[in-house]
TrEMBL record:
SUPFAM superfamilies named in the record: vWA-like
Superkingdom of origin organism: Eukaryota
InterPro entries per record: vWFA_dom_sf
Protein's recorded name: VWFA domain-containing protein
Length: 1092
């Protein structure tokens, strides 16, 4: 067998005369197994501007990475060599000189790695922009064989990184696979940043290599006029051209060879009139093979972009670089467009095939978009401090990239790969256990069928639970799962996208080569699990509160996450079999057919990332299990099949089928009208058709007709009400809907702790508050707990049901108020309350009576506004809750009937039956289907379920629910004072007629108190004058009464009005002044007249 070549070279043509080249070195290549002699020279900025951020001991660990003695140099006004060190301990003992100078440039000649720590501050001498390039030219002229790498460490956010980047750009001859800069925003972060640098440098292996071409081809050193430089990044440009022309074009002469660090892959960009035959690596000729891998081109352009970033921060003009890169990106796009998306198919695709199809269809396009985005950032960048410059250099300056840096607990890609591998090993064992559990429960006829399919000995061993290598191998194959599925054991779930079964997708985890993936999204396309398609409506707050979203619909046809991610990332439109809106998200559930295996995968790190994507459109915003519980809860509510929801689905389906190739009436605008493949509308118009009807090509709405297709406008997507079917009664609940609800509840029990579910059910039983402050993030959480738990007596009584529905209405009112709704104005409109019906304030200057006395005399009458539809306001929000509460009620009745003893343990029994297969719990499905077939989700059902009354009583109750929700929308306004709220007494019962009267009183009292506040404001401006007038005409006894016994408790305006009147009446020695001072405190008396 032929051994793998030590080096291979591939190339692909970018455009005419431009090639991308990739050099691969095998793991056996000598340059990857050996390390060149290394000397590290550390240069520390010890100037005053560093403010104490220089600490040599922080760098000491770098010394251990070198093979030769290392040097430590510090500079302020001048450079000082502190010594040569061979161990970290020696460097830690080095003492830095006293800092009293300013920053100046340090000239140093190093053999290999130069590590610079500085804030980049420049105070005196020539500017670095003029001095450093000259230094670089001198260095390369005098030492042409110098192998020098530059590592820059920036310090403090207000510093300037441009000097470090200029040094790197001018001096470096060998690039290391490191970040352009390691940045520490402050001294506290210095050790952490240097630890990262040390760890990365320690991971570098291999020695330096020289690459060269035959005469006539050279590696180009580009100056400021050109694009590339041999001094940075593992990418170079080769030109086959006249040397004088070349120098004029790019600013520097080409060199015959380049030096680079040996790595598994190395990229070059080559300019040549014709393909060359081979590349010389340290004297070894490596043949160059032409391929059609356009992705290679993107990989080659990425380092060029990094080089341009460094040049931009160094203060150089990068317009030429941006222009050239833009041309090459355009060339790549054209090449990819010609290839197209041929044969995209998810049916039966393996993980490798899904990934390959994605890369073929869209992988490169995503890379091209990333390149264009970075080019745009490059042109727009104007950062002036190290923090902004470092973020720009490392590609972390975008909005979401910067946010990602703040996620302390974000899972790394390597963690995901490792977790997928570990999970795969566990899934193999779990699948065996799940299959053995099913086999142990087979009936005798089923066992005979299994024997026929697998062989008598194998079937007997499996059914008796024997654990041998032979039975394990049989379980690991797909034979047992296929036989069980053919026997109807299990639900036979499969993805409509891949047409693969649940077992097949779970089994893919067992042999997944996760290390062949290069990103989180590739992992998500590689392996997955089945789930229900859901239409998620997110809000900005969803990232912090997973319940701050809504699921509009849950489809019954299952799909798999891997195929969906592959399709979406490839920009394919994936519509569910039943039609409607294309799907974008899946609700992942624990599968009762394979409970242990599916639970392992649902709890994996990769599926946590997927949950984060579903809720936040971000891979790394997973906040914990509450995210999955929120999705389960909202999905359960979405399974309520309501008539209004079907209308939206019809509109979506019409748009999906007709938009873009249907017409609308040229007269009235009715649409859609289908004239597909009909170019002569008059030919068949009016002809008799099958079944006695006639062909009608006229507008179905107004009858307008034109035989010319050009007279019909293209349909704009507007669906008039006349194009929709008439509203019908709610369709009876389907078996698929019941099973999906039970599946959600089953999965919730597997991922959600019993104690938390029990606590929520207890709140219902004890009729406690259900506000956010009480630990209820959303009412759907209570609904899911009720549906997935054996309920104690009283949980579904009318009072707790009313409490839940009132909380739902309060949350709706709160959301509308955040949107700008004036709750007070709406409540007064509903109750027909006007300002003239509220208590009136007394005239300015007269004190108001006690508030309790005013409230006691306040009017409590009201008149409901007939123009406001109370039922519609309430029903819009509570309708799905009514449907699901009816489902929960019937389910609990069924479980009680099955389990006995009040239903305790009945859900656990149903769990076990669901794991056995559909036949084991068919009685539950039949019971629910029969008991819910006549379910009427209407205001009448609301009245009966919550004991809200009928007729006028129901209308009054609904009005009470609306007004109470508007006036008590927050947790604080719905809770009593003893538990941290504002209420003296609990909220009134909405079915009690007196509750609405009390709400009417509150509205009038709010009007009265607003008038009092206005009166107080007027008094602060006019009170002093009014008091002055009264006190001036008052006799001494009356004046004494006006002062009262607590003079300093009077309002400011009253106090100073009395003082002014007293002084004006008899002067400082008058009787009124003496009376006033006798009631004032000592400090006032000392200041204004006499001590007491």
């Amino acid at each position: 067998m032929a051994s793998e070549p030590l080096a291979t070279c591939s190339r692909v043509e970018l455009d005419a005369g431009t090639w991308a080249l990739r050099l691969r070195l095998s793991c056996e290549h000598p340059a990857r197994l050996q390390r060149s002699p290394t000397r590290i020279h550390i240069v520390l900025d010890n100037s005053a501007s560093m403010r104490g951020n220089t600490r040599s001991e922080c760098f000491s660990e770098l010394v251990s990475l070198a093979t030769l003695p290392c040097s430590l140099t510090v500079f302020a006004n001048e450079a000082t060599l502190l010594g040569s060190f061979a161990t970290p301990v020696e460097m830690q003992k080095a003492a830095l000189p006293h800092r009293d100078g300013k920053t100046s440039e340090a000239e140093s000649e190093t053999h290999h790695v130069l590590v610079l720590l500085s804030d980049g501050a420049h105070n005196e001498g020539p500017r670095p922009s003029s001095g450093v390039p000259v230094l670089g030219e001198t260095l390369h002229r005098d030492l042409p064989n110098l192998r020098l790498s530059v590592v820059v460490v920036g310090v403090t956010g207000s510093s300037d990184t441009s000097m470090g980047m200029l040094l790197k750009r001018s001096l470096e001859t060998v690039a290391l696979d490191l970040q352009p800069i390691y940045f520490a925003p402050d001294a506290a972060k210095m050790k952490e940043v240097l630890g990262e640098l040390t760890e990365t440098m320690a991971s570098l292996s291999g020695s330096l290599l020289r690459a060269s071409f035959p005469p006539g081809i050279g590696f180009v050193q580009a100056g400021q006029q050109g694009l590339l430089s041999v001094h940075y990044a593992p990418v170079y440009i080769l030109l086959k051209s006249n040397l004088s022309d070349l120098k004029a074009a790019v600013g520097k002469d080409p060199v015959p060879e380049v030096t680079f660090m040996a790595r598994p892959e190395q990229y070059f960009v080559v300019k040549a009139e014709a393909p060359w035959q081979e590349l010389c690596i340290e004297g070894m000729e490596v043949p160059c093979v032409t391929t059609s891998d356009v992705e290679l081109a993107c990989d080659a352009l990425q380092p060029l972009l990094a080089r341009a970033r460094v040049a931009r921060v160094a203060g150089e003009d990068v317009a030429t670089a941006v222009q050239q890169l833009g041309k090459w990106v355009t060339a790549i796009e054209k090449c990819e467009t010609l290839r197209g998306s041929e044969g995209f198919c998810l049916v039966g695709a393996s993980p490798q095939q899904r990934l390959a199809q994605f890369k073929k269809v869209k992988g490169l396009v995503q890379s091209v978009r990333e390149l264009r985005n970075r080019l745009a950032e490059l042109e727009a960048f104007k950062g002036s401090n190290s923090a902004e410059q470092a973020a720009f250099l490392t590609g972390k300056s975008s909005k979401y990239g910067a946010k990602a840096l703040l996620r302390a607990n974000a899972v790394s890609f390597s963690d995901l790969v490792e977790d997928v591998e570990k999970t795969g090993a566990k899934v193999r064992l779990a699948l065996r256990e799940d299959l053995r559990a099913k086999l142990s429960q087979l009936s005798e006829p089923a066992r005979k069928s299994l024997q026929t399919a697998l062989g008598e000995d194998a079937a007997r061993a499996l059914c008796h639970g024997e654990v041998t290598s032979a039975t394990d191998a049989l379980l690991d194959s797909d034979k047992v799962a296929e036989v069980l599925q053919s026997l109807g054991i299990g639900h036979g779930r499969q993805s409509y996208l891949s047409l693969s079964s649940s077992w097949q997708h779970l089994a893919e985890w067992c042999s997944a080569d996760a290390r062949s993936c290069h990103s989180e999204y590739e992992l998500l396309m590689f392996v997955g699990i089945l789930g229900y398609p859901v239409d998620v409506q997110r809000r900005a707050a969803t990232q912090m509160d997973p319940y701050a979203m809504k699921i509009r619909k849950m489809h019954k046809s299952l799909a798999d996450t891997a195929s969906l991610c592959c399709g979406l990332r490839s920009e394919q439109v994936l519509v569910p079999p039943e039609g409607g809106k294309p799907i974008e998200d899946l609700l992942v559930l624990v599968d009762p057919d394979f409970p242990k295996a599916s639970r392992l995968i649902a709890n994996s790190l990769l599926l946590r990332c997927y949950t984060s994507v579903v809720l936040c459109r971000d891979l790394h915003m997973y906040l914990g299990n509450q995210m999955r519980v929120a999705l389960h809860a909202h999905a359960l509510l979405a399974t309520a099949e309501l008539p209004g929801g079907r209308k939206d689905e019809i509109v979506e389906e019409l748009r999906r089928l007709h938009l873009g190739h249907s017409y609308q009436c040229g007269s009235c605008g009715f649409g859609p009208v289908s004239h597909t493949n009909c170019y002569d509308l008059a030919a068949h118009h009016g002809e008799a058709g099958e079944g006695g009807g006639r062909v009608n090509n006229a507008c179905p709405s107004c009858g307008w007709f034109s035989e010319e297709l050009e007279d019909w406008d293209a349909w704009d997507g507007t669906v008039p009400d006349s194009a929709l079917p008439a509203e019908t009664a709610q369709a009876p609940i389907t078996e698929a809907s019941i099973i999906s609800r039970l599946h959600i509840c089953y999965s919730a029990r597997k991922i959600w702790g019993f104690e938390e579910r029990k606590e929520l059910c207890k709140k219902m039983e004890m009729r406690e508050d259900l506000t956010t402050a009480d630990g209820v993030e959303h009412p759907v959480k209570v609904l899911l707990a009720l549906a997935s738990t054996d309920l104690p007596e009283g949980c579904l009584d009318p009072v707790p049901i009313r409490n839940l529905l009132n909380e739902v209405c309060a949350r709706k009112a709160h959301a509308e108020m955040k949107g700008g709704l004036d709750a007070s104005a709406l409540a007064r409109r509903i109750l027909s309350i006007t300002p003239d019906s509220a208590p009136e304030c007394r005239p300015l200057g007269e004190s108001e009576p006690r508030l309790a006395a005013v409230e006691e005399e306040c009017r409590a009458d009201y008149s409901l506004d007939s123009s406001f539809d109370f039922g519609a306001w309430v029903w819009e929000e509570v309708e799905p809750y009514i449907a699901m509460l009816s489902f929960v009620d019937r389910l609990q009745a069924c479980l009680t009937q099955r389990g006995g003893h009040g239903g305790h343990g009945a859900w656990e029994s149903l769990e076990q039956d669901m794991e056995k297969g559909p036949a084991a719990y068919a009685d539950v499905v039949a019971f629910l289907k029969d008991s819910l077939k006549d379910l009427n989700t209407s205001l009448g059902s609301l009245g009966s379920l919550g004991s809200l009354g009928e007729g006028l009583q129901l209308q009054r109750t609904l009005a009470t629910m609306v007004v109470q929700a508007l006036r008590h929308d927050s947790s604080q306004s719905r809770r009593a004072k003893d538990v941290g709220g504002n209420l003296e007494e609990p909220l009134g019962d909405v079915t009690d007629g007196n509750t609405l009267r009390l709400l009417a009183v509150r509205e009038r009292m709010d009007i009265y108190q607003a008038q009092v506040r206005e009166k107080i404001l007027r008094w602060s401006g006019e009170g002093a004058d009014i008091t002055y007038t009264r006190a001036t005409v008052a006799d001494l006894a009356q004046f004494q009464h006006l002062c009262s016994s607590h003079l300093h408790s009077l309002p400011k305006a009253t106090f100073w009005g009395l003082w002014r009147a007293a002084v004006a009446d008899g002067g400082r020695d008058g009787e009124k002044v003496l009376t006033f001072l006798s009631k004032a405190n000592q400090d006032f008396c000392n200041k204004y007249r006499h001590p007491r």
